[in-house]
Write a structure and sequence with these properties.
- The complex is a heterodimer of chains A (about 120) and B (about 110).
- Chain A is mostly beta strands and about 120 residues long.
- Helix content of chain A is about 0%, strand content about 50%.
- In chain A, strands 2, 4, 5, 6, 9, 10 and 11 form a seven-stranded mixed beta sheet that branches. Chain A has a four-stranded antiparallel beta sheet with strand order 1-3-8-7, with no helix packed on it.
- The termini of chain A are far apart.
- In chain A, about 35% of the residues are buried.
- Chain B starts with a strand and ends with a strand.
- With about 110 residues, chain B is an all-beta fold.
- Chain B is about 0% helix and about 55% strand.
- Chain B has strands at about 5, 10-15, 20-25, 30-40, 45-50, 55-60, 60-65, 70-75, 85-90, 100-105, 105-110.
- The chains are: A mainly beta (about 120), B mainly beta (about 110).
Chain lengths: ~120, ~110
């Protein structure tokens, strides 16, 4: 079946502009995660969605970052007034369940969006 | 919060040799430990995971061991092949739904034929 898809695959923008990154999770997956991967760094957690709500936004680096999820499916990560330090690969992952009694389910990652801020 | 250290950062082996990557974690409450393989231009792909109720898990040429007392876990790849060349990430989290994964910084594995 189809995996997690993200668009665009690459985005080049100028400092100060706003950008929107899109994630289409695997159909039926209730949990959705955003991570950021900077050059030479590991993956850094940004935000988690359970359905359309975001119980954990603790990883968002500043108030310029926001995300929403609609219809329990597609999610958009928005970065306002982009800065050069925002340049990174933004990865989305989804997992099928989000029930506490099930424990952690496998997170399936998309290919990422490479963001370059000039 | 949780912190995951991963070593080595780069690893070069000859085809057919074994490769071992080690990770340590800081939060004793962590009890879910997945390993991901990331090829160039692609997202990470889960290759194996282990939960704290077991000490070792194997899947063909890949195995993971966990020592909760010492708070470390390792990935073992036997009979390496050139297609095993990639960046490998370990991660740790609580075994609860909706918990973020805390990743190590990755190991670049190169398998030469």
């Amino acid at each position: 079946g189809a995996g997690v898809s993200q668009s665009p695959s690459n985005k080049v923008t100028e400092k100060g502009k706003d950008v929107e990154l899109r994630c289409d999770p695997i159909s039926g997956h209730t949990a959705l995660y955003w991570y950021r991967q900077s050059l030479g760094q590991g993956l850094e957690f940004l935000i988690y969605f359970q359905g359309n709500s975001a119980p954990d936004k603790s990883g968002l680096p500043s108030d310029r970052f926001s995300a929403e999820r609609t219809g329990g499916s597609v999610s958009t990560l928005t970065i306002q007034r982009t800065q050069q330090e925002d340049s990174a690969v933004y990865l989305c992952a989804s997992s099928p369940y989000a029930r506490v009694d099930r424990g952690t389910d496998t997170q399936y990652f998309g290919p990422g969006t490479r963001l370059t801020v000039l | 919060g949780e912190n995951v250290e991963q070593h080595p950062s780069t690893l070069s082996v000859q085809e057919g040799d074994s490769a071992v990557i080690k990770c340590t974690y800081s939060d004793s409450a962590s009890n879910y430990f997945p390993w991901y393989k990331q090829e160039l231009g692609k997202g990470p792909q889960l290759i194996i995971d282990i939960r704290s109720n077991v000490g070792e898990k194997k899947d063909q040429r890949i195995a993971v061991t966990l020592n909760k007392t010492a708070k470390h876990f390792s990935l073992h790849i036997t009979e390496t092949q050139p297609e095993d060349s990639a960046v490998y990430f370990c991660a740790a989290s609580l075994n609860q739904a909706g918990t973020a994964l805390i990743f190590g910084k990755g190991t670049t594995l190169s398998v030469s034929s």
